Amino acid sequence: MKQLGAIIQRDLRLAARQGGATFLALVFFVLTVTLFPLGIGPEPAVLARVAPGVLWVAALLAAMLSLDRLFQADFEDGSLEQLALSGLPIGGVVLAKIIAHWLTTGLPLLLAAPILAVLLNMDDEGFAALMLTMLIGTPALSLIGAIGAALTLTVRRGGVLLSLLVLPLYIPVLIFGVSAIDAAVHGLNAKPHLLLLAALTVACLPLCPWAAAAAVKLSLE
Amino acid sequence: MFQGRGIVCERGERRIFSNLDFTIAPGGAAVLRGPNGCGKTSLLRIAATLLRAADGQLKWDGGDISEDIEAHRARLHFIGHQDAVKGALTVRENIALWANIRGDGEGRIDAALAAFDISHLGDTPAQYLSAGQHRRTALARLVASPAILWLLDEPTVSLDADGTACLQRVIADHRAARGMVMAATHIELGLDDAELLRLKPQ
User: Fold this and answer.
1) pTM of the complete model
2) Closest CA to B128 of B169, B69, B85, B70
3) Rounded alpha-carbon distances, angstroms, from residue A86 to A98, A119, B105, B147
4) What's the pLDDT tens digit per position in B126-144?
5) Phi, psi dihedral angles at B126 (to 5 degrees)
6) Domain housing A37
7) pLDDT tens profile A61-89
8) Which residues touch B148 (CB under 8 Å, ≥6 apart)?
């Protein structure tokens, strides 16, 4: 556990030192969302209607944008090899890196989401559901994305391939995330949607690190 | 005792070497020699379990290492072509990082810096290092966290004479403490008594 903590700490420290690149996902998220009122007009009712969907789609794309850095830098300078040889199970190493990824991308998205929701005039009833779906859903984005990031490690300019692999897998997160907020906004019960979203994240928790670890092992051969 | 029996290596359908045997006793060493492309790096990567051998068996004290790969990885250091040094971190942070990840703590960092004569660079960000200093930082991991088996792939690349002497001293100390070394090198590392593995291109 202590060793996995050391990996998380390392990734957070590297993210803090490299500054700009880390907040890229957050800046992208904010910029994309602010483009919508400019694109579809400032009518409050229209913005309120599209707010949950816009926020989640932008969050999806922002999370994806940061995925290629997840393993690539470590792969190129030999660190990934050394991590694999540290005596820790590779699945554990991958999980530690996913947690660090969530802390540097998912968590900032989660914190920025309510502010952007105000900007989009989202109904007050939806805020709790928005925060909950972001809290439950964004870890799934990091988990699923890790598989794509690991599979495209040895591909030159794998960014496009990565998005083709990962975006279809993000669809369930998008559907249940948005439907939970919509339900709350319309005064319906959001709980079933939240539970489905939670089930998705819980299923990803053991499966995705395992699959990503297998892909990492292959890339090191 | 680290042994390989009948190791066969294939890369992309092409056979690199076959039926290779080696034995390294505690305090012993093996030096890999041969022309480019004869499989020195591949053999070291097989010994590190990064690469799967097409056939053959690796044994540690008589037991098959494939039964517990993580235990084998925990007892070895692999120094490859890439230094695994992060430019954004200082030299000291780079070395401490790997000692922590391997679970050995930071108690031996100063000794590691001194062993490769980079104590004065401790607080320098690694992106400002020369290639030789970069290499020394990578090699300092050997001292910072103890491991019984060292797999060194051309460890002297970009080292100057002084750096090579540091490495020789560190290897001698390691072997005196019953550590084992397997190295691919064209430079004398004070391993005159080592088993010589000559790999021939097939």
Assistant:
1) 0.92
2) B85
3) 17, 47, 13, 11
4) 999 999 999 999 999 999 9
5) -65, -15
6) 2-220
7) 999 988 888 999 899 999 999 999 998 99
8) B26, B75, B76, B178, B179, B180
Dihedral, CA of residue A129, residue A134, residue A139 and residue A140, to nearest 10:
70
Coil, helix or strand at residue B4: strand
Residue B13 in contact with residue B59, Cβ under 8 Å? no
CB B136 within 8 A of CB B156: no
Record: contact A77-B84, CB cut-off 8 A: yes
Please give the structure tokens belonging to residue B167: 């490495």
DSSP for A55-117 reads HHHHHHHHHHHTTTHHHHHHHHTTHHHHHHTSSS-HHHHHHHHHHHHIIIIIHHHHHHHHHHH
**Strand-pair category, B2-11 with B195-198:** unpaired
Chain A residue numbers touching B100 (CB-CB < 8 A): 3, 6, 9-10
How far is the CA of A2 from the CAs of A88, B80, B88, B103, B186, in angstroms?
Answer: 11, 26, 23, 7, 39
- Asked if A18 reaches chain B (Cβ–Cβ under 8 Å), the answer is yes
In chain B the first and final C-alpha atoms are separated, in Å, by 29
Total domain count, chain A: 1
Smallest CA–CA distance, residue B83 to chain A, in Å, is: 6
Contact B89/A77, CB-based, under 8 Å? Answer: no
Q: Long-range contact list for A188-191, CB < 8 A, 24+ apart?
A: A190/A129, A190/A132
**CATH number 3.30.450.20 is the correct assignment for the domain at B1-75+148-202:** no
